[in-house]
Amino acid sequence: MSNEKNLTASIEINKPVEVVWELWNDPVHIAVWNAPSEEWINEKIENNLTEGGFFLYVMAKKDGSEKFNFKGTYTEIIKHKRIAYTLDDNRKSLITFTGDQPVILTETFEPVAHLDLGMQQEFCQSGLNQLKAYAERL
């Protein structure tokens, strides 16, 4: 996934890689941390973490002003190391888990062409920041 137009966000989480992996992939945990701010919620989460499996996050602003589906298919899974997927609009993403306590979680993704790149970068980084805060409270 080497493309100069890709965006990357990264976070260091002071937990074992097994814990970070579970928090990233378990819908019960995803529902808690997967939002860039308090304005957003996950109305629905499905996650079939297998190669060829799909995921669906229905994200919405609490005030009802915005809503979107984040849906894709897993193309590669190496437990505790990496997850690659393709979104329904054919954009690709790669998540890597490096190290073990701390874990550096890096998300590299193809942005939506017609949306502000800075906003997309901030949205992704904010979600990772929420994951870190949640993980380190446990």
From TrEMBL:
Q: What is stated as this protein's family in its record?
A: Belongs to the AHA1 family.
Q: Which InterPro entries match?
A: ASHA1/2-like_C, START-like_dom_sf
**Which superkingdom, per the lineage?**
Bacteria
User: Per the database record, which ranges form the Activator of Hsp90 ATPase homologue 1/2-like C-terminal domain?
Assistant: 16-117
Gene3D superfamilies recorded: 3.30.530.20
**Protein known as:** Activator of Hsp90 ATPase homologue 1/2-like C-terminal domain-containing protein
